[in-house]
Amino acid sequence: MRRRSRAVLAGAFGLLALSGCAQASTPPPPVSVSAQAAADARSVQTSATFGTGLGDAITYDTALVPAGAHGAVSATNDGTNMTVTLALRGVRPNYRYGAHAHTQPCGAKGDDAGPHFQFQVDPVKPSVDPAYANPQNEIWLDLSTDPTGAGSSETKVAWVFPVDRRAKSVIVHSMQTSTEPGKAGTAGGRAACITVAF
Fold first, then answer.
1. pTM, whole model, 2 decimals?
2. Strands 57-59 and 96-102
3. pLDDT digits over 23-55, tens only?
């Protein structure tokens, strides 16, 4: 379930403006859920400027995500459901990007971020089966940019990260995400990466 709205875009870019290159976590909000779920409820916000060296936000394809472009990721959960937002600014105008949460932090190469995080893990690698590679089992954040090179997306999933297994980054891909069998979840090359302390 993905939505793009001016409110989401404005909120995410407000995070970019307020946070600069800092990465911060806020205390868990109070929720009326079980003790275990309450312990896991949290909100995370990351904002960073893409560069070509190692850091919290790395570009691997400067034609699609130029050095100096900005990215922001926010994630909130109530112990049962999770909402994740991605915003980009200063990237290619009028372009459709794929984006997903990945299992490892960003590294010198796009592949260092590992595969997509899956709540139910596909035993077959690479995972291109729509039964596993889908926006209900993974965190998909495809977005389209406007004429200024800004865009945002939001997704909600009916699960939260297990205590011992969390995504650690968001990869921005060169193409929108495929859903067809044998190609499900694929989205072209890895254009950029944001490390996120989910």
1. 0.80
2. unpaired
3. 333 333 333 333 344 445 679 999 999 999 988
Inter-residue contact 197 to 45 (CB < 8 Å): no
Nearest to 157 by CA among 79, 84, 74, 85: 84
Q: Give the model confidence (pLDDT) of 171-198 as tens digits.
A: 999 999 999 999 999 999 999 999 999 9
CB atoms inside a 10 Å sphere around CB 7: 11
In angstroms, the CA 4 to CA 89 distance is: 14
Strands, sheet with 143-144, edge to edge from the N-terminal-most edge strand: 57-59, 190-195, 169-173, 96-102, 143-144
- Domain over 2-26+37-195 is classified CATH 2.60.40: yes
